[in-house]
Amino acid sequence: MHLPSVLKNNRMIRILLISVLVMAAVFGILLFLWEHYSITSVTITGNSHYTDDEIKDMVFTGPYSYNSLVLSVIYRNKSIKDIPFIEKMDVDIVNANSVRINVFEKAVAGYVEYLGHYMYFDKDGIVVESSNRIMEGIPFVTGLSYDHVVLHKPLPVKKSSVFLTILNVTQLLGKYDIETDRIAFDSEGRITLYFGNARVSLGTDDYIDEKINEMHLLLPKLQGYSGTLHMENYVGEEVNFSFDKDKDPNEVSEEDVSAEPPEDGEGDTDEAGAAEGVTKPAGE
Predict the structure, then answer these.
(1) Burial environment of residue 212 by CB neighbours within 10 A (0 to 12, 13 to 18, 19 or more)
(2) What's the pTM value of the predicted model, to 2 decimals?
């Protein structure tokens, strides 16, 4: 055997051994980093429109994303944006195995329906999102007059102050854990809330805090009723609220046929409803 051939073979063997050792060392380091920095605890704050699992799916997007080192590189000094109903999300690495996701949601006051889409707007009336799904906890608003809707632009209504009223009503409903089917405005800006077959006429936004406080006490008594609870005359003092029961279209009596039509403004006041307590409790 020639000496150069032996030296050449030994050199190849050394190179191969070194390569194997380097690969083993790299694999060991990667395994250590993966196991040592594997995320086992995720804390999410500030989310209401999306569940924790949905937020996780938005943040952990790759096969190696459940590693705190990888996340620290991806989201270093960077927020997650361009997500419907979310202003931004910040990802903070608490330690090697823990991550905190801070969600900052857009201040959505309500939504309107326009050309088959749900247009969500903030307290200033600016349309922040267009969606084909209804988000829970955000009220449907009707009665606003506008001829077009542009994303990221204000709804073109005559009185922009209506949006502050909507936000105020929405926050008060949230305070008392009340869910309404719809917030409706008439041409004079008077407010009506819908709860199934029952409606609550609040009138203007004067004494709106007191009205909704009283309303949340009376709502349980409206279950099973179809009609309108009138609270528009509330002026901050003890007052009885009237309840106009809807007429059953299947009930037509001889008196109904022969009676003269009622004058404008008159309704069928449900005396039984008043007797059962659809009034402001005395002494409150």
Answers:
(1) buried
(2) 0.62
